[in-house]
Amino acid sequence: MKEYVMGNGAIALGALAAGVNLVAGYPGTPSSEIIETVAKYPHAGVHLEWSVNEKAAMEVAAAASYSGARTLVTMKQMGLNVAADPLMSVAYIGVKGGMVIVSADDPGPISSQTEQDTRRFAEFARIPVFDPSTPEEAYGMIQDAFTCSEKYGTPVLFRPTTRVCHAYAAVEVPDHFEPKAYPGFEKDAGRWVIFPRLSYANHGRMEQRNAEMAEDFSGYARNSVEGPTSEKAVITSGVSYPYVQEALKALPPVRLIRIATAYPFPETFLRQALNGVKEVICLEELSPFLEEKTLQTAGRHHLPIRVSGKLDGRVPANGENSVELSLDIMRAFLGGAEQSDAPDLSDMPPLPARPPVLCAGCPHRASFYAVKRAMRGKKAFFCGDIGCYTLGNAMPLDMVDTCLCMGAGITMAQGLNHTNPDAVCVAFVGDSTFFASGMTGVVNAVYNEADLVLCVLDNSITAMTGHQPHPGTGRNMMGNVVEKVDIEKVLAGIGVRTVRTVNPLRLEEAIQVVTECAAEKGVKAMIFKAPCVALSRPEGKCRVDAEKCVSCGKCVREIGCPALILDQGRVSIDPNLCTGCGLCGQICPMGAIGGENHA
User: Fold this and answer.
1) What is the pLDDT of residues 95-116, one digit of tens each?
2) What's the rounded Cα separation, in Å, for the pair 19 and 16?
3) Which residue range forms the structural domain that includes residue 392?
4) Which residues of the chain have pLDDT under 70?
5) Residue 560: CATH number of its domain
6) Whole-prediction pTM value?
7) Burial 502-533 (b: 16+ CB within 10 A, else e)
8) Of 102, 164, 433, 477, which has the maximum CB count within 10 A?
C-alpha cells in the first residue's frame, strides 16, 4: 500500500519494514515524529518508549541489540552530544542485532542552538553514516542501514536534515509489519564487558572493518554519477542533491556526483567518478566534509583537480542550501553559462517574518512575570534553559540572561552565585528537562552549598517538540497508565528543604511565594504548575471595558501577550487568540479587563 507521510514517518515505516524490535528516543525537533509515527501504526511486538534522555535511550537500545534485536534510537543533533558516552563505547563493543541511531541535523539552524554536523560525529566515533536526500529514499535507506549494522556488527548513524524530516512524499509500504525474531542475550564477558584490553583489540578491528566498508560503499547504488563526461563536476549529498538536480535544469549539462555514505568515505567510487574531471565544487550543508574528503582523495592519489566549496568561500559556511542558492553558486562555477529555456526561479515572494513567541495564555508568561515583579529593584540573574520557556528572553519579559544547553540553567545559576554572591540567582527549567538533565544539577547545587532559586515550569508535557509525555505525565508510549514521578518529592529526596508549588496564573500569590523563597538561604525550589494552554484551555475570553480603560498600555508593555492589541492608542483583545487566562486582568491598574475565569 502507499502512504503519504512526512520524512520522519518514512523513516519510522522503513524501520518497521526492516523488522525493528525496539524504538527509543528523546523528543527533539526535527526528529520527534519518528516515534510518534511508529505509535500510530500497528506495532505488536515492538517496544516503544520516550526515554528520559538520549543517553538512556542509547543504553536501552544497545542492550537490546546485544540480544540480537533490531533497535532504532532517535534524537536531534544536540541530543547526540548527550548520548556520546555510550555511543563511543558501543562503537568499540559492537552489536549483534542491527542498531541504527537517527541524529537529525538542523541546518539554519531552525530550532537548535548549533549547526552541528553528524557526519563529523560518525568519523569521530569511527562508525558509518547514511545521508538520505528525500523521504522516499529515507524509507529504503534506513533498511540498508540495518543490514549494514548487522553485516559489520556496528551501530550505524542515520543523518536526515530538517527539510528531509519535514517534507512529505508517498512511499510504498507492506500491508503489515513483522518484527524480527531474535535469540535473546547470551552471556559472554569477553565480548560485552568493556575493558582496556578489549578496547585495544576492537579498535584495530574497527579500522580494518572501516576500510572494508569503504570499499563496500563504493559499490553502493545510492552513491551515483549522473550527467555527461565533463571537465567540471558537482559533488553533493543529502537534501542538497535534489536542490542541485533542480538547479541543473537551468544550466548546461555537467557531471553530478552524489555521496550517500559520507563515512567510511567511498574513495574508490569517487576516484572513478572524477575520471577526466579538472575542477569540482562541493555543494553541501553544514561543514565542508565532502570537500575535505575530496581534497584528501585528490592529494593521496595525485589527481590534478581543483576543489572548491566552503573552504575557498564559493559556498556559504553556514545556513541552509536551496535551489536558488545552488543555481547562483553553479552559475558562477560554470562561468555564468545559462540555457535559454531556463526556468525563472526568482519570482517567488519572500516569506513573512514570524518571530517565535510564547502562546497567548501560556502559563510560562505568568511565571516569568511573577519572578520579574518579585525581583524588581534587586540585583538578580536569570538562567534559562531549552524549551518553550527560552522565549522568556523576548521583550517585554526579558527574563533569560543565559541559555546554554538542556539542564544547564540550574548549574549555570550555581556558577553565577559562586562568583556573584551579592545577586539573587534564579534558574528556570521545564518539567521534561528537569527529568532529562536537570536533576543532577540540583544534586550538585545541594551538595556544593549553592544559594539559588529553582523555578520548575511544570506544564505537564514536553511542549516545544510536540506534546510528548514524560515521567511526570502518568502515561508512556506503550499506551499504559503509569505512576507519575512527583517532582516535589524528587526535590525533597535530593535535599531541597523548601519546595513550594503555586499556580502562576494566581499572580499575587505567585509573587509572594517567589519573594519568600528568595529571602531564604540555600537551594529553594518553586514549582509553577499550570497545564500547557494547547492541552487545557480555560473557558471564556477576556475583554476590555472601554469606559474604564485609560489606554495606559501597561498590559501590553508588561507581558507582551499576542492577544493584546494596541491600535491607535486603544487596547483591545483578539478573541481568536485569547484563552481567558486572566493574567492581563490582574495587571490592569484600572480593573478595565474582565470576563476571565481565574485559575
Assistant:
1) 999 999 999 999 999 888 889 9
2) 5
3) 363-529
4) 336-348, 538, 596-599
5) 3.30.70.20
6) 0.88
7) bbbbbbeebbebbeebbeeeebbbbbbbbbbb
8) 102
